Amino acid sequence: MTGIPQLDAGRMAALLTPAAAADAVASALLGGLDPEVCPPRSAIGVPGGGELLLMPAASGAYAGVKIAGVAPGNPARGLPRITGSYLLLDGPTLRPLALLDGAALTTLRTPAVSALALRYLAPAGRPLRLVLFGSGPQAYAHLEAVLAVRELAEVVVVARHPGRAEGLAAYARTLGPAARTGTPKEVADADLVICCTTAREPLFDGRLVGPGATVVAVGSHEPTARETDTALVRRAAVYVESRAAALREAGDLLVPEAEGAIGPGHITGTLADLVGGRMPAGGPLSCPQLFKSVGMAWEDLAVAVALVEAAGV
C-alpha cells in the first residue's frame, strides 16, 4: 500500500457534508446503478465474538472494497465498535487509487442514505419533531444529516445510557432545535423516528406511531435482529435500498414474515424507485412510512468516489 493516498476520518468529514454525500448516492442511482445486482456482503465470525465483513462493489470508472470489523466488546475497551478500511480502485485497470478510513466512511454513508430517503418520505413545509434512538456515532451523524434535509422543531433522544443521551441532546441544542432526553412512548407525537442502535429487539410500540410519520431503522443487517416491531411493519408503507438485500438481511422485515404477519411482497418500493420518480414523494398519509436500511457496498463506493474526487487525489 506504500504510496497510495490515504484519507483519515478528520479529512473525510471536512471534504463532504451529509447533503453532498446524499447527492453522491442519488447520482449513482440516477446514473443507472442497480442495487438489486450488488454483491451481498460476506461475513465470518471471529474468535472473541466479533464479525469480519467484506463488501465489494464496482460501477462506472471505479471499483472498491470495504473490510469492516464489528467488535461488540470494543466499547468496554475504550475502542470503536466498528473498524475497517476502504480500498478504492480504478475500474478499468484495478489500480489502487486511495485508502480510506472504513469506519468513518460507514459513519458518513449510512446517514447519507437515510437523508436521501427522508428527502422523499419525510413531511415537508414545517418544522418536525424527531425522536432519535441511540447515542453513538451514527446517532450524532444522523442528527446532522436530518438537519441537512429538514427543519427540526424538537429533538428527543432515547438511549440506554442517560449521560450519553443528555450529551447528544446538548449537542443537538448547539445546532438550533430544542432538545431533551425522553422515553420510547414519545414516538406517539413524532414526525420522524430514527433508530441508530445495536438493539436486537424492538425499541418501541409501533402502534403508537402516527399515520404520516416517517421511521428510519439502520441499526442491523442481521436477519434475526430488529429495531422496529411487527405492529409497525404490518401497518407501514415499507421502503428499502434493495429488495434482494432486505429479504436477505433485514430482520425488521424477516421476523414479521417468519411470524406470518407479512409476505415478501409487503415492500412498497425502493430508494431507486423514489430517486427515479417511479413512486410519489411523501408516501401515503394514511399510514407510517418505514425506511429500513441494511447498508450496501454500492453506497460505500458512491461516497468513497465523491470523497476522493473532492480531495483531488
TrEMBL record:
Pfam family, one: OCD_Mu_crystall
InterPro entries: NAD(P)-bd_dom_sf, ODC_Mu_crystall, ODC_N
Signal sequence bounds: none
Transmembrane segments: none
Principal EC category: lyase
This protein's UniProt keywords: Lyase
Protein name listed in UniProt: Ornithine cyclodeaminase
Organism of provenance: Streptomyces avidinii
